[in-house]
Amino acid sequence: MDSILQIDNLTVSFDGFKAVNKVNTGIEKGEIRFFIGPNGAGKTTLLDAICGRVKPQSGQVMFFDVDVTRYSEHEIVNIGIGRKFQVPSVFTNMTVYENMELAVVKDRSLYSSMFHSLKKEQIERIEDILVTIGLYEKRFNTPIALSHGEKQWLEIGMLLAQEPKLMLLDEPVAGMGRAETDKTGELLKKIAQDCTIIVVEHDMEFVRDYASKVTVLHEGAILDEGSVYDVQNNQKVIDVYLGR
Ligand code: ADP
């Protein structure tokens, strides 16, 4: 298997406090990797370090064969790593379709001039993604008319429009009911055929159903890593997280 992301000895400190402490892990192509652990374990900070939001004190992040450790957020997006935050940030004064148009035009300063002249392949890409995320029928609605889950899927679609090779998702099913959660899981499975995914998640049922592999963080360090079965039977993981 090819490792597309390699994290070596990564440490991120805030005023001397190590939020991420000597983390080593490799993410294989096509994985749906879950980062789990108690609040304050360092999950979000690890995502922030991968996407260039925070700069590590030491260690390295390799994406394919490129050292992206010191890349800016903008450079990280351009190299093919997309990040979705917990709260959906879609444009509510535009339709679903227009949100997708905006996402597909990578240089947003060109958006107004390109608005009515997207290339054929860009239009096809938008339509394919709308079908994938289940919002094709609602493409002329504004996001105000969408459910919480549908807004999250739109935002995932907007990420997909940028053709990432790796997608970072922060609690994508928070606030969803079971039906929307399962639809999100099926969506992630489809996406993972072309784009590797890392998910920070608390919903253990979701993790059990959809994880290829799980990384358990505790106090900034990796406590365990492996299959869902392995980590949920590890007594240390039960003690600090699952048994609570
Ligand atoms: P998790 O996502 O697992 O809940 P976080 O990565 O958000 O954990 O936080 C890990 C630790 O780092 C926490 O103790 C948090 O308070 C601290 N932390 C996170 N971001 C900052 C920051 N910008 N400044 C200072 N401390 C921070």
Automatic annotation (TrEMBL):
Keyword Transport attributed: yes
Domain of life: Bacteria
Keyword terms: ATP-binding, Nucleotide-binding, Transport
CDD domains for the chain: ABC_Mj1267_LivG_branched
GO MF assignments: ATP binding; ATP hydrolysis activity
Keyword Nucleotide-binding: yes
GO cellular component, one term: plasma membrane
Domain ABC transporter: 5-244
NCBIfam families in the record: urea_trans_UrtD
Listed name of the protein: Urea ABC transporter, ATPase protein UrtD
Species in which this protein is naturally found: Desulfosporosinus metallidurans
